[in-house]
Recover the amino acids of this structure.
């Protein structure tokens, strides 16, 4: 095992009825208490959504432990390798909903799950389709599938309005609508919204972009993938490089590395090129370089994201 591949980073979710989610939170905390692992795991009565990193042995132990329980035996874990932990701490919490939305969604109305292999074939053969990216705009700026559109939405409520507008340019009975997100969980809900709006041919990428990259590589993908951990940006495949589509916040040169502003009272997320990171000492602007509460900067270990001040004392 090389130094570069000492840890596994897992991404997973599973919709399943959990009778006592608080007891499940406690069970998770107990199992992981003495493990060399960090994570963000959210559990509700409707299932589990997790991002997890650990030494390879502890990651395997966690997956084996999960599969011993009937409600989680079918969980699909997407695995990346990394040289260290990807999260600052262990976070295991109850949440009322796995995805924050302000309405009830009938999950029985979800779109058809499409394997990465079939997704690639559809991208190459299906005409007059609509390809939707249901992630955030900062994820879109870093990387996306060729020809995808980003709904101009910041909230779930706005997506329902977008769905109504989509009816004006698509035949809801015939037009194929393909949608994708990072790991697949958002599509479970947003595809159901389109089905409830009357769209009949809804397809969602099974396993999301992560699963696609692991199985199909970079075909039809541009840029990198934003991830919600210390890595921030990753290649979806190590088979080949994908064209850089992001631009530096400061100089507008090609860039594919995201940073949180080193001014902790700003914390703006921005793309930055290798030349501008040291020039602005990890900050989004010159004014932030004079701020009183700064993350420490070093050219070899650029500050990690999502850190609060007590981590630097």
């Amino acid at each position: 095992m090389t130094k570069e591949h000492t840890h596994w980073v897992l991404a997973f979710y599973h919709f399943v009825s959990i009778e006592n989610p608080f007891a499940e939170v406690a069970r998770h905390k107990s199992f992981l208490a003495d493990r060399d692992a960090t994570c963000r795991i959210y559990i509700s009565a409707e299932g589990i959504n997790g991002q997890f990193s650990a030494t390879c042995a502890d990651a395997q132990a966690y997956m084996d432990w999960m599969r011993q329980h009937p409600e989680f035996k079918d969980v699909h874990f997407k695995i990346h390798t990394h040289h260290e932990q990807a999260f600052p701490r262990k976070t295991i919490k109850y949440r009322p909903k796995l995805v924050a939305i302000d309405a009830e969604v009938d999950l029985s109305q979800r779109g058809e799950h499409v394997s990465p292999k079939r997704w690639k074939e559809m991208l190459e053969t299906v005409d007059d389709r609509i390809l939707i990216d249901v992630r955030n705009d900062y994820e879109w700026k870093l990387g996306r599938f060729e020809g995808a559109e980003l709904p101009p939405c910041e909230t779930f409520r706005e997506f329902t309005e977008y769905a109504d507008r989509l009816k004006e340019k698509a035949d809801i009975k015939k037009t194929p609508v393909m949608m994708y997100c990072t790991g697949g969980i958002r599509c479970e809900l947003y595809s159901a919204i389109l089905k409830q709006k009357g769209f009949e041919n809804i397809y969602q990428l099974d396993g999301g972009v992560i699963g696609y990259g692991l199985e199909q590589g970079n075909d039809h993908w541009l840029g990198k993938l934003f991830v919600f951990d210390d890595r921030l940006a990753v290649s979806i495949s190590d088979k080949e490089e994908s064209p850089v589509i992001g631009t530096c916040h400061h100089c507008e040169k090609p860039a594919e590395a995201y940073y949180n502003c080193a001014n902790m009272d700003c914390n703006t997320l921005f793309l930055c090129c290798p030349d501008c990171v040291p020039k602005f000492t990890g900050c989004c602007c010159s004014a932030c370089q004079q701020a009183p509460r700064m993350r420490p900067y070093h050219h070899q270990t650029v500050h990690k994201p999502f850190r609060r001040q007590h981590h630097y004392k």
About this structure: The chain has three domains: 3-94, 107-215, 257-312. The longest helix spans residues 21-32. The helical segments are 21-32, 56-67, 116-125, 137-142, 156-166, 185-196, 208-216, 276-279.
